[in-house]
Structures are given as C-alpha cells and as structure tokens.
Amino acid sequence: MSKVLIVMSAANTWERTDGSSYPTGYWAEELAAPHEKFVAAGYGVDFASPGGVLQELDKHSADPALAGPDCARYVAHAEKALREFGPLLKLDEVSIDDYVAVVLPGGHGPVVDLFQDADLGRLLFAADAAGKLIGAVCHGPAALLSAVDEDGKWLFAGRELTAFTDEEEQIFGTAEGAPWLLASRLREMGAKHSGGTAYEAFTIQDGNLFTGQNPASSAPMADAMVAALGK
C-alpha cells in the first residue's frame, strides 16, 4: 500500500512579542480532512513530528463558533486516527522514499518549530527532488520555510502558493503580537503568494506543490492531491 506522511508540529505554545504565551496545537480539520481523504482513496497514512512528540489539540478547533458546525466530527476523527496510529514517528528517522506525498497541516505550531526544522528541510528537499507531492494548509506552509540550502537559498522561492493570510490573522485576533506574519514572510522569501476570500476555501497547485489557505481548504487540497496521485 502506498503511504502518505503527515508531519505535525510538536509545539503547544506560541511566544508573543509581549512575552506572553499563546496556547496552540494541531487544528483538527486540517489533520482530519486530509487523513480522511487519503484513507478513503486507499492510501496508508503515517504521522511524524520533531522527536515523535504528540502535539495537543488546539482547543479553538473544537469551538463551533470558530471552527464551524462540523468541528466535533473532525476532532473525533483526528483523535481516533492519532490514537490508533500510536507513537508518532520521529522526523529525523523518516525517509521520504517510503511515501508518495507529505502533508503539513497547521495550527500555529509550524510558525514555532517546523519553519526552522533542519530534518524537515532535508525531507522536503528530497521529496521535491523525487517529484513527490507536497501539501501544506493554513499555517502549514510555514514549514516550507525549513527548506533552505547551505547558501541560504529557499527551495520554494518563485513558486505559486497560498497560506493563512495576514487579513485572516488579524480577523482571528492573533496578528498583533505575532513575531512575524506568515503570508508576509513567504512573500519576503520569494514566494508568489495569493489569497482568496477570508476563511473560504482557496487552493493553489504549482507542479508538485499543493497549498490551502485556511482550514476550509484542507479537504479541497487533499482532493487535488488524491487526483494528482491517481493520474
């Protein structure tokens, strides 16, 4: 059975510029929707994180007022999938050779650890070189920033992509005090970032790179990846 790798952050707090700590974790829909889509299409799914640490659930993603009426289903699916999988794989022990695709879900964790994780950077370089599919949704594209070579060149410079927009960060209430804003940083690094309507599904494919703007984009991004794998 062909397999897909979901790489999670290990961070549960996001340090703010005022010295406060913002609680974070994995966003249920962004993990559950891709997992559900890939399993339904017949793929196995593995989970990995830095050190094999299981990140907590971001409780905001279990709040219907913030995460929509289907959030309870996504929370239940994500918790069941993680429980049945057991201990997460350690990111530094993973080989991309074992997978047809890698998916990077959000929550704010990736802007804390994955954006500068050298093991993930090496995995993304290997995945891209082998033509494996790479998907990232919401704050997951922050993890793409880890793929920088010895000369400081970013692997995804010049690529078309989307991610959680600065406008969405402001609406969510987390822009003020953020050490940096994701969409702005991606553009600074050379990405061709585009965004759709705030909190509505919006995805972009650029070759083997698939990105989604926000939680609502998780399932459409996964659908596009499944379709591409089937060709």
UniProtKB/TrEMBL annotation:
Keyword line: Lyase, Stress response
InterPro entries: Class_I_gatase-like, DJ-1/PfpI, Prot/Nucl_acid_deglycase
Entries under Pfam families matching the protein: DJ-1_PfpI
SUPFAM superfamilies found in the cross-reference section: Class I glutamine amidotransferase-like
Signal peptide: none
Domain DJ-1/PfpI: start-end pairs: 30-226
Family per similarity comment: Belongs to the peptidase C56 family. HSP31-like subfamily.
UniProt name for this protein: Thiamine biosynthesis protein ThiJ
